[in-house]
């Protein structure tokens, strides 16, 4: 009898262990909450993971491919063969799918598609993602630049900052910017939406594909009701470059995707989504998705172990803590089209709280501290790159010479890389600012986004070795939540920033332009001195500027010529320390074994395509 009871108890225990927790819900614990829910402002993976569940694009990637595309809200992928790419690559026609419903019950129309792209172009927040469409369609990088090109003055000089209304003499000209240029470039033609580019641009389809928040489709009427642009030609400027929290869609979302937004609890840093049963592909198998930013690793680990989390963000250095955890599956070595780098602000905002006194007096740094090449090179020498990859990333990464992933055209492993050398760093510091840096010392604050252990370790490594070189050198390392960190770098307050770039689309232009062009997302944040340097022609580049070479490569059709241009740009960037490539990471996915249907695509933000998932033991 005693033996019978022992067997029964063990059987019950086995059943309890095998029981799937929260069978209708996927819970992901990660390290950062969304920056915004406005798809035309969002430019980070935390926001992208949420928005990808709520909204959809015209095209999608097939499975794990970053090359093969399939129709999503469109019914065909434009090509020369099917006649939907015309005019030598300047016209793209997208037939729009019928019968697709938004979460509010409205049916998708071509007018929604037209409005979505026009609203994004006209909103165009500084440091946001809309530069990609501006570049692809109009050969500029912003609405401000386009207005200057058409009207003769940038939009920022035409609008009254208090009223957001144009100076009277420019009002008609601004109306024509929309009616004569932007509106004709995106037109409804029956059931089709037609895009007209100013010149051929090879990566255009990739910009519209997959997980591209900037190309997600809004419901026009709903967006207007929330307070977005009303679609009229004489009001659009009131909605240009609104601050993040002033966007009507900052904390609201409503699309055609497989999940609806229930709540974004910013106090708990938790987003709750529920299944949209009228999704045109059929309802998801999972009823609810919770994406929860929990910065403390021990809490994420405990939730994963108990089965309270289905996916968990696991920094590589903590991988041994989960490798033998019962009921947990780990997929390692996943390719990422990404580079993590250290970059410098050559003109920090003078009121930044991260530059101390704002002077080179031992208690701070001047705003243009990093415009000195010797300072930048000194920082490049104080990073133990191999130790970061071995000990922090647990081997899940590799070195690259510049800010270009090894899988993309133009990568050259023979380009020089910075070495770890305290002696060389000291030599550079002694030369910096004509010896004044060595003599007077400096003090600055280096930030990392909390929860990102790799970036914290790099920041602390820089602090340790810099302070070892000269006791007059002081660096404070401080963690900030991801939205705060993101806003601070975009607004020019960080003297230096450690940041990664996950490909918007799998083309070298998306990295080279982003990091090294003055209008690039990270180039933009590096100050006026940086802008002047990369836009000035130089004999080193055969009389061209770095900007000009990047622009030439974007429209070059010969891949061999493109590759050589990108090699020259990378060499120039290394020579002048325009940035310091820390590592090309590899990814890992950690999940409970009861999660089924998971797959990986290098372009996908976040843990999973939740639409494809279900849970069973």
UniProtKB/TrEMBL annotation:
Residue ranges the record marks as coiled coil: none
GO CC, alphabetical: ATP-binding cassette (ABC) transporter complex; periplasmic space
MF terms (GO), sorted A to Z: peptide transmembrane transporter activity
SUPFAM superfamilies: Periplasmic binding protein-like II
Residue ranges of every copy of the Solute-binding protein family domain listed in the record: 71-521
Gene3D superfamilies: Dipeptide-binding Protein, Domain 3, Periplasmic binding protein-like II
A biological process term (GO) from this entry: peptide transport
InterPro entries xref list: Peptide/Ni-bd (IPR030678), SBP_5 (IPR039424), SBP_5_dom (IPR000914)
Protein name: Peptide ABC transporter substrate-binding protein
